[in-house]
Structures are given as structure tokens and as C-alpha cells.
Amino acid sequence: MKAEDAVILLKEKGYRITPQRVAVLKALIGNKRHPTVEQLHKVALKSCKNISLATVYNVLQILEDVNLVRSRSFSGTGLRYDPDTTDHAHFVCHKCRNIYDMRITAPPRDSIPVGAVRGFKISGYEIVLRGTCKSCLQSQRKVR
Ligand SMILES: [Zn+2]
Ligand SMILES: [Zn+2]
Questions:
Q1: Whole-angstrom Cα distance, residue 18 to residue 22?
Q2: SS3 state of residue 81
Q3: Is 78 a member of any domain?
Q4: Are 40 and 66 part of one and the same domain?
Q5: For residue 93, how far is its CA from the centre of ligand 1 (angstroms)?
Q6: Which residues contact 1 (CB under 8 A, 6 or more apart)?
Q7: pLDDT class for 57, splitting at 50, 70, 90?
């Protein structure tokens, strides 16, 4: 999805299009780095000079309500925003704290042992891989 399409979608959902909302959308859509709210604020400031951090938070809340972004928290990385709202796996690097999308299909739901979740209703599940990313491994090698 392009930022322009996201603006149209927001309009269709009945939201007013403000320069602040457009600025956050532009900062977010297509951003594969799973940015923090502070990082999005920094980018949004380039196209919207007076946008506050609180406004960025508010806009993100709206965008999450209309499923244009998903907030995810991974241990050790704080809250991150992901414009890819489809189910996908993540790889969290414990060195650089970068989060990478991984195209891995989760094992089918019936592979979860029923007895282990008795009495609970599952609405979703995801794979989070942890370790050292490619570029950290490469720079490690250079040092040695
Ligand atoms: Zn890394
Ligand atoms: Zn992702």
C-alpha cells in the first residue's frame, strides 16, 4: 500500500485528513524498520513542522483502529509500529535491536496441543525469532 492509498482509506472510514495524519502516514507506510514512536515523530517533523509527539501517538492509535498499523512489543526493544498488518514472523537481533520481517509461515493451528490451552480461546499467534542478524554477524567477523 502507498501512503496515498492509506489516506483514501482513512477518509473512507470517516476520519478527517489533517496535515498531521498525512505526515504520520507518510513516515509509516512502507517503513520496514518497525519504528518507535520517537523515530516516526522525527520523520513526521520533516513534512509537518509543528507536530508533537502526543499527536503522533494519537494518530497511531487511530491508524491501529483502522488496521493500517499494528503495534508490537518485543522484549528489549520497546513498542514498535509495523505498517505490515498481515501475519508474519519477526527476527529480533539482540545486538543492534533491529527487527526484521521473516517470511515464515507459522505451523498450522492444530499443531498446538489442545490440552496445553484448554479453557483458552486463541485469536492469533506469531513467531518471534531471536539471535544475531546478518549485518551484526558480518561486522563481528571483521573485528576478529
Ligand atoms: Zn543486528
Ligand atoms: Zn513486521
A1: 6
A2: strand
A3: no
A4: yes
A5: 5
A6: 9, 29, 83
A7: very high
Interval between CA 1 and ligand 1 midpoint (Å): 27
Supply the pTM of this predicted model: 0.85
| 112 C-alpha to ligand 2 centroid (Å) | 23
Residues 6+ apart with CB under 8 A from 120: none
> How many A from CA of 104 to the centre of ligand 2?
12
What is the total count of domains within the chain? 2
Q: How far is CA 133 from the centre of its chain?
A: 18
E strand or H helix at 82, and its extent? strand 78-82
Residues 65, 39 within the same domain? yes
DSSP letter for 73, please: E
The predicted-structure confidence for 92-126, as pLDDT tens digits, reads as follows 999 999 999 998 887 777 788 878 889 998 888 88
Identify the H or E element spanning 19: helix 19-28
- Closest by CA to 41, choosing from 13, 6, 49, is 49
Range of the domain at 63: 3-72
- Provide the pLDDT confidence category of residue 134 given band limits of 50, 70 and 90: very high
The Cα–Cα gap between 118 and 65 comes to: 30
